[in-house]
């Protein structure tokens, strides 16, 4: 009989700065305790960066935008998808050393085993990042 997979954890948060710590807490609280020493800090940082980027670049302050997060284990990774209603395609930038912003996706690129940007089927964009359950050699 095949192993039944875990149901993905799923949240919606308002597109405002107060949602960043709430999203971090929700994601970490849903991670199995045994995985927190290995994945906890990286997952916390990924959540912060992706939710902050979604709020800053993928939402419009004039409407009631929501940020959607989904966390699930599959294929030897824990996957985090952060979605927003925006249509832009986030890309890694290389800001000058004095710049105070622009390093979020550099951190994602460094922490994640793999990541991508995908358009949503109806409206918006998702950034999906995978953290390996086993450390990279």
TrEMBL record:
Origin species: Streptomyces griseoaurantiacus
Protein name: ATP-binding protein
Keyword line: ATP-binding, Kinase, Nucleotide-binding, Serine/threonine-protein kinase, Transferase
Organism placement in taxonomy: Bacteria, Bacillati, Actinomycetota, Actinomycetes, Kitasatosporales
Gene3D superfamilies membership: Histidine kinase-like ATPase, C-terminal domain
Coiled coil: none
GO MF: ATP binding
CDD domains from the UniProt entry: HATPase_RsbW-like (cd16936)
Domain of life where this protein originates: Bacteria
The keyword Phosphoprotein belongs to this UniProt entry's keyword annotation: no
Domain Histidine kinase/HSP90-like ATPase: 13-127
InterPro entries, A to Z: Anti-sigma-factor_SerPK, HATPase_C_sf, HATPase_dom
